[in-house]
């Protein structure tokens, strides 16, 4: 009886498997196809919608955190009270608040069984914005306190002697420390714009609703679409760069 050539049984059972799985991504035609797919996806309207969701979510968060955090830092800086150093230490510690912890905390509060479940905002972009606000708030307070602490002591004494209203004295101090305050806002925006933990937990990465650039990167990478994930990463950096250039122009205008 003639013997079959070695390996023929394997070839007969799974003939295409060995050939097709020999790295498809290593073949030139596959690489070109993947590259075209990544470029097409980056230029699609869905990518623009993802960018818009990221920007509007972070813009609302940084606005709320700035409007509340800067006055609190000013009030804390201009007064002496028991526990002030402890309060400052707490804010400094919260600058390292993990985004995943914020996500878990707010998820517990906003879920149907939670105390704030009646709001019905879980898995919406306002919920993501709320999480980002909690991340940005202590950072703005801490860095603004540091900026105000570097203002001239003589200026504070002059404002006290002049007897100006509290809001007017505060405005003068903020103008004096404007570069540090703007730096605090920029640093806080940079943190929340690129975070993924709370956005994923509170938004759910829902297509056309709560998918942001960072959650899209995480999703595409988990699917093995590394080229698209890298492309979205570079796009994220480009958007962040454009926004930070805007902040820098604002700093220059404030200094002139």
**Separation, N- and C-terminal Cα atoms:** 96 Å
What is the second-level CATH architecture of the domain at 47-212? Orthogonal Bundle
**What is the mean pLDDT?**
83
Rounded radius of gyration (Å)? 26 Å
CATH superfamily of the domain at 47-212: MetI-like
CATH class of the domain at 47-212: Mainly Alpha
Number of helices: 13
Question: Strand tally, please?
Answer: 0
Unreliable runs: 1-24
Percent helix:
over 70%
CATH topology of the domain at 47-212: MetI-like fold
User: Strand-and-helix sequence, N→C?
Assistant: HHHHHHHHHHHHH
Gross morphology is: globular
The main pleated sheet reads as: none
Work out the strand percent: under 5%
Description:
The chain contains 13 helices and no strands. The chain has helices spanning 8-13, 15-20, 28-42, 45-77, 84-94, 99-110, 125-149, 153-162, 166-176, 178-193, 197-203, 213-222, 226-255. It has a domain at 47-212: Orthogonal Bundle (MetI-like fold), CATH 1.10.3720.10. It has 256 residues and is mostly helical. 75% of the residues lie in helices and 0% in strands.
